[in-house]
Amino acid sequence: MSAKTAVKSPFSPEQEKALEGWTKAYPYSNMGLVEALRSVQDWNRMISPEAAARVGEIFGLPFNRVWGVVNFFPTFTIKPTGKFRVGLCHGLSCFLKGSDKMESCLEKTLGVKKKEVTPDGKFSWEPMECLGACEQAPALQVNDRLQGAATEQLIAKLKDLK
Amino acid sequence: MTKILTKHFDEPKLHELETYKRLDGYKGLAKALTMTPADVTAEVLKSNLRGLGGAGFPTGAKWGTVPPPDKVPGPRYVVVNADESEPGCYKDRVLLTRAPHQLIEGLLIASHAIGAKESFIFVRGEYQNQYDIVEKALKEADDAGLTKTCSIKLMRGAGAYISGLDTALLETMEGKKAWPRQPPPFPTVAGLMAKPTVVNNVETLSMLPFILREGGEAFAKIGSPKNGGTVVFSVSGHVEKEGIYEVPMGSKLRDVLELAGGVRKGHKLKAVIPGGTSMPPLLEKDLDLTLDFDAIRAAGTFLGAGGMIVLDETADAVEVAHNIERFLTHESCGQCTPCREGSFWSEEILERILDGKGTAEDMPNLTRMGENITGKVICALGDTVGVIARTWQQKFPEDFKKRIPHGQAS
Question: pTM of the entire structure?
Answer without folding.
Answer: 0.96
